[in-house]
């Protein structure tokens, strides 16, 4: 077929390969089957769903060719950033690299918080590290919750007073 205007030809051919059911749309399941980390593991379900939801303009749980093209561009930007922070070129982000990444992104986060993220998102091993999919997920969630926090922290003092329901509302509207 012909490449639609505004769609990268490479994205077009990849879209056709990924659209397994030939519906003209990519679901989170199809996306998961198409994306791999540097260790050849598939992207996790949570990250795929986050990205589908980000580019799903119709709230149907799937993206069309234009959304897919934009998503591939989005992933490439994150991959470039990931490779920049993967200083030892291991294909994953270590604790030290994660700390440096947060600092360079402007986040003042404690080593304990980075350890918590590693415990939650890294594959279990003696030297835990973060793959690209989890890096994207962490950064998207960090940005989203930071934006929500800043909406409440109008004086930019670094702390806010919230009711429990306000907190839950922030989480549900930003994370799910």
TrEMBL record:
GO terms for molecular function: calcium ion binding; calcium-dependent protein binding. GO terms for biological process: COPII vesicle coating. It comes from the Eukaryota. The keyword Lipid metabolism does not apply. GO terms for cellular component: endoplasmic reticulum; ER to Golgi transport vesicle membrane. It is a peripheral membrane protein. SUPFAM superfamilies: EF-hand (SSF47473). PROSITE patterns: EF_HAND_1, EF_HAND_2. It is found in: Cytoplasmic vesicle, COPII-coated vesicle membrane; Endoplasmic reticulum. Coiled coil: none annotated. It holds the Pfam family EF-hand_7. The keyword Transport does not apply. Keywords: Calcium, Cytoplasm, Cytoplasmic vesicle, Endoplasmic reticulum, Membrane, Metal-binding, Repeat. This is Peflin. It comes from Steatornis caripensis. The gene is Pef1.
